[in-house]
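Page 37, continued from 36.
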């Protein structure tokens, strides 16, 4: 069964059940109300009969009945099929003598003495044209007492239940008509509600179908705050995430291809150099005075290949959390000074100057060797991309005891694309890959990024073309035990 019909059936059942329950309750309420109104009316007749016919002495005792007043009342009530009976305080019928009213039992009589009015349903023989017939009547039996609280008389007034049932049949007929109209209205309302609900779900289904076909630019409109709107909102978030994931997959695939090409290039260059020199030495194509230089070049290229392989292995170990970090409290000032001494020669060759803003009390919680590797690679990267400029190293501990280290240069800077890809393996500022001026393999910054992450820290880069680059490394403090 389609969801539309399921929803329609559900709404229809709910509406129909509500109408039926309401109808039954209304019938019960109407039935009680009709009986209550009838008893109230009969009580009024009893009061009228008592006032017109019952004679009470000055002492408050029952003396007799005024027949003249009763005959007119009896004829008037008989036309309405209402019959009454008057009992004296001895539970004997005082009027009329040929009454067919049932006798009042002792239990009822005790209640009447206490002043309680009784309502009953009983079978009576009522005088009608063509003779007497037995009918079910509803009666009220009301006691009347004097000022002393003593029982004077009891009046029973009854009316055929058929009169009440006639009223109830009219009410039920009207209710049945209203029920049929409500049923038709329920079908229309249920269809409208189901159509509206299903149409909203159908929009999500169509959007999901488009995503299945590879179109991630879909968006489901939301107008309210119910569960379906919540589902539509989550669907839109999912579509956005899928689009971003799809773009990231494509970007990673492109980077994978570039990685393979870059790795092949990085290895091919030294291997080609070594192979060429070996052939030259084998066939005596290299002069004797150049052989030592050739052997040194082969040694350098071999070491370059070893570094390339070691850097790749190092990167994978860091990325897959296979390294062990022996963390401790490290004075940043001494690390920076030692690295400046190591890199001063390269800085002098590039005509760069170091500026240090690190207090002696600045501390970092990290693995010493890996921390040195992080700062060394960033400083070396700054020297490679800066000529005749300034390299500034600053560090401080913030209010949460994080160690914040910034290394800024006034070099060539980077574009938005370069900053986005700087953490990728084999990525270089020179996209042609023909110039090795800016780094050997392009693995340094990728390793730095993974090492900072392994420490639970964060590294961000800010750069502008032609104005320089700033790396900011934030390392967390030792966790309290």
């Amino acid at each position: 069964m389609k969801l539309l019909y399921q929803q329609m059936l559900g709404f229809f059942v709910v509406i129909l059940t509500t109408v039926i329950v309401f109808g039954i309750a209304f019938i019960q309420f109407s039935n009680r109300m009709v009986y209550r109104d009838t008893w109230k009316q009969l009580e009024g007749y009893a009061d009228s009969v008592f006032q017109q016919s019952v004679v009470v002495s000055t002492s408050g005792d029952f003396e007799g009945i005024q027949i003249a007043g009763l005959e007119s009342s009896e004829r008037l009530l008989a036309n309405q099929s209402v019959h009454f009976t008057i009992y004296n305080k001895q539970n004997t019928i005082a009027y009329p003598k040929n009454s067919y009213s049932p006798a009042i039992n002792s239990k009822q009589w005790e209640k009447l003495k206490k002043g309680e009015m009784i309502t009953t349903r009983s079978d009576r023989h009522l005088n009608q044209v063509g003779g007497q017939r037995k009918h079910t009547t509803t009666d009220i039996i009301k006691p009347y007492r004097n000022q002393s609280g003593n029982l004077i008389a009891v009046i029973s007034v009854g009316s055929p239940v058929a009169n009440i049932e006639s009223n109830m049949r009219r009410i039920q007929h009207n209710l049945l008509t209203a029920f049929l109209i409500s049923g038709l209205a329920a079908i229309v309302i249920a269809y409208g509600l189901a159509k509206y609900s299903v149409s909203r779900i159908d929009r999500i289904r169509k959007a999901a179908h488009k995503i299945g076909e590879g179109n991630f630019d879909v968006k489901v409109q939301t107008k309210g705050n119910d569960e379906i709107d919540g589902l539509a909102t989550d669907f839109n978030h999912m579509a956005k995430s899928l689009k971003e994931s799809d773009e990231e997959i494509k970007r990673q695939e492109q980077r994978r291809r570039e990685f393979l090409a870059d790795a092949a290039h990085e290895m091919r260059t030294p291997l080609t150099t070594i192979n060429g020199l070996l052939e030259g030495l084998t066939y005596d194509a290299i002069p004797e005075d150049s052989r030592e230089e050739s052997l040194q070049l082969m040694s350098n290229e071999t070491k370059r290949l070893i570094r390339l392989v070691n850097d790749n292995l190092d990167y994978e170990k860091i990325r897959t959390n296979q390294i062990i970090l022996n963390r401790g409290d490290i004075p940043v000032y001494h690390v920076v000074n030692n690295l400046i001494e190591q890199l001063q020669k390269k800085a002098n060759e590039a005509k760069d100057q170091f500026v240090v803003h690190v207090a002696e009390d600045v501390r970092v919680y990290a693995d010493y060797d890996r921390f040195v590797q992080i700062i060394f690679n960033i400083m070396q990267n700054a020297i490679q991309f800066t000529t005749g400029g300034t390299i500034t190293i600053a560090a401080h501990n913030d209010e949460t005891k994080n160690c914040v280290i910034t290394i800024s240069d006034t070099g060539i800077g980077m574009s938005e694309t370069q900053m986005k890809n700087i953490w990728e393996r084999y990525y270089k500022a020179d996209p042609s890959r023909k110039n090795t001026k800016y780094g050997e393999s392009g693995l340094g910054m990728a390793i730095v990024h993974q090492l900072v992450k392994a420490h639970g820290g964060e590294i961000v880069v800010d750069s502008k073309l032609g104005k320089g680059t700033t790396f900011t490394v934030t390392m967390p403090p030792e966790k309290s035990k």
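The radius of gyration is 53 Å. Flag for discussion at group meeting. The longest helix spans residues 227-282.
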